[in-house]
Structure formats: C-alpha cells, structure tokens
Amino acid sequence: PELEQSANPFATVIMAHLKAVDTRSDGQQRKIWKMALTRRLYQQGYQRQDILNLYHFIDWVMHLPSALEQAFSEELNHYEQELNMKYVTSIERLGIKQGRQEGILEGRQEGRQEEAERLLLRLLNRRFGELSPEIQARVKGLSVEKLEQLMDVAIDVESVEQLVDHLPAPEAAN
Q1: Whole-angstrom distance, CA of residue 101 vs CA of residue 50
Q2: Quick check: helix, strand or coil at residue 138?
Q3: Contact (Cβ atoms closer than 8 angstroms) between residue 125 and residue 131
Q4: φ, ψ (nearest 5 deg) of residue 57
Q5: Alpha carbons 68 and 63: distance in angstroms, whole number
Q6: Sorting pLDDT into bands at 50, 70 and 90, what band is 87?
Q7: Which of 39, 1, 34 is nearest to 20 (CA)?
C-alpha cells in the first residue's frame, strides 16, 4: 500500500519488479498488473518522456507472451484514446471534423487540377508531338479553369506556337 500511495517514480519501478516476480507463472495476472502500472504512469501526471522511460522498464521486466502482449497493446491503445478524448472539447471535435472535410475538398480539387493538367498535356502531345520542357512547365500548376480554357484552345489552334500565345508568361504561370 505504501508503494501504491507514493508519487515517486521509483515506487512504480519497484512495484513493477515485485509484480514481475509475483506473476512469473501467471501471464493473465501479469497483463493485468502491467496495465495497472502503465495506467499509474498516466495518472501520476508524469511528463511524456518520463512515462516512456518508465514504461520501457515495465515492458522489459513484465514481458508477456505474444497473445497477451497483443491484448495488452489493444487495451493500452483504447486507454490512451480515452485519455486524449477527455482533453478534446466538443468545439475542438467540431474543428477536427471541419478540418477533415476541408482536407477532403482540397484533395478533390487537387485531384481535378492534376487530372486536367494530365489531359491537356496528353491532348497537346497527341496533336503536336513531344512538348518542350518549357511548355510543360508553363502548363503545370495552372488552375482547373485555365486548363479547361487551354483544352478548348488546343482543339482550335493549328500549331504549338499558336497555343503558346495563350499560355501565361513563365513567371505568371501560377
């Protein structure tokens, strides 16, 4: 009981060693104690690096068979997720959700831009043969709207030179 009441990190180290000895022939009990000692690290309010250092010791002295280690890892992950969620307010959760949605929209827009760029370059290569790296560079990074305009132009022009007149200047390509 005295060790369990102590806030001293070495109390956890001693408890880990004692419980490792006590549970050497009972893997299930060892898993339970390993989880209890690991939870204790979080509950004591130690800094992240201290938790990691102490956990490495606990993990070393309280080795578990692979099946129990997997169950322990799942339980620990669940516990850590619960801890993290306690610190996330509903406003933060809303912000996280909104950020995900914005990321999805941005990804879709980027995908549209890349596809329009790929299609324009393919169209130009089919119509006029291999394009110079300069022309390819001037096409890259243009907005979807500009790329769509250039596709219409590419269908109507007779030569690459005529198309180049419709491309933004190299420094204004973005």
Answers
A1: 36
A2: helix
A3: yes
A4: -65, -50
A5: 10
A6: low
A7: 34
pLDDT tens column, 28-72 = 999 999 999 999 988 888 887 888 889 889 999 999 999 999 999
Query: Which residues are CB-contacts of 174 (< 8 A; sequence separation ≥ 6)?
Result: 141, 142
As a whole number of angstroms, the distance between CA 62 and CA 71 comes to 14
Structure-block tokens of residue 132: 């110079």
Distance, CA of 145 to CA of 112 (rounded, Å): 10
Burial 76-92 (b: 16+ CB within 10 A, else e): eeeeeeeeeeeeeeeee
Residues constituting the chain: 174
Task: Look at the pTM and tell me if it is higher than 0.85.
Answer: no
Residue keyed to tokens 């879709």:
108
8 A C-beta contact, residue 154 and residue 142: no
